[in-house]
Amino acid sequence: MKKKIIAMILACTMVFSLAACGNKEQNTGGSSTKTEGEKEADKGAEEETGGVELEVVTTFAGNDGNAQNYKQWYQEWEKTTGNKVIDMSSTSSDTFKTRVVTDFETGSEPDVLFFFNGADANSFIEAGKVISIEEIRAEYPDYASNMDDGRIPVSLVDQKAYAVPVNGIWEALFVNTEILEAAGVAMPGADYTWEQFLADCQKIKDAGYTPIAAALGHIPHYWWEFAIFNHTSPENHLTIPESVTDEIGQEWVEGMEDIKELYEAGYFPENTLSATDDETFAMFTEGKAAFLLDGSWKVNGIVSACQSDPDDITTLDTEKLAKFDVTYVPAKEARKATDLLGGLTSGYYITKKAWDDPAKRAAAVDFVSFMTSNEAVPVFAQHGSSALNNVPEVDESAFNELQIKSLEMMAGCTSITGVVQDLFQGEARVPTFDGMPEIVTGAVNAADAVQEGLDIYWSAQ
Fold first, then answer.
1. Does 151 lie in the same domain as 57?
2. Per the domain annotation, does 413 fall within a domain?
3. What pTM was estimated for this model as a whole?
4. What is the DSSP letter of 55?
5. Residue 228: closest CA among 68, 339, 117, 92
């Protein structure tokens, strides 16, 4: 059973994103253009890297389920090497993305960055501020050699791979089954439809609970993506429409109108337009909201919420955790409920700033290699996926109940498609992301908001 689950997960992840369909043959060798003297200097720096300070920025912070894993692993690296990590990690958000891009523009970028590998990274890749895996391998042939090159996403800028991935992600519907039982609602399955979902939400609302935990005024991202996906398909979801008048453009508008329908029906929290994501997440874990649309990283966040000490897994209340489950997002039109969104969307970059410093170059390569080793990746990937050449067999006894439910859910997926918002980035997203409150309240027409975003996107191309 364990091998079967892993095999099916890997089958799904092989179709995860547009980027992964690029260059599959990476340079695993090659010669450096450095002089012999420079090579010897670099070799000496590699052999004696103790005392080097690396500035590292990641998204392993806040309620990210791997925040504690990251801290433990980089501290182990510090002990092993004598080097020091200056950790400047922050929870992933649009503000965080903007900060990272701005840091590169102002020359304040870190030495190592764990960041998205989609369009969000285009600006600093185009500026030559990060080093490709191919170039690193010319100096360090074994760099990321434990990864399947065909599954390392490549940049749309130049079809080169830059970021060494750790854990793949998926997005799905988390469920508080205690609320479902109280409302007389059955646990949704692989054939869950939008019509069934609406009916269930009404039952949950009538029972005195909030159907959907979401902060539309803070992070509408997941509903934005799946609402559009419900009108597109795995084949064309990553196509950005030219206008709201074309077929895909109309589908984007219909997706926004579906979110508006949920809002008007009162299925989101009363304060959904002013609440933070942390607040609505707490509603879900505290038994006030039934459904939470989010990513695989939230598994560990839910587990932590079931611990008396969030940092101590031995304090886990297994009875409380048993009340949570994960299933497929309700389907509409051509999309199957088992068609998921996700992929290997992030990874470790080494910046040119670190690469140009011989001591930091060696330390940065060693750090990334340590954090993406065969031993480290399974700890971070857990119930997700990875790009490892040799995927370790999963020992279910090492997983908690929600992680096992996640593996079982993933085993039933029919496809994993990348998220279009990673292509439709920056200011283009503002009219429908930041503008979601205006759309759902009717202050702004959905078609006008979508068209405004498309105009911004295409004017920048």
1. yes
2. no
3. 0.71
4. E
5. 339
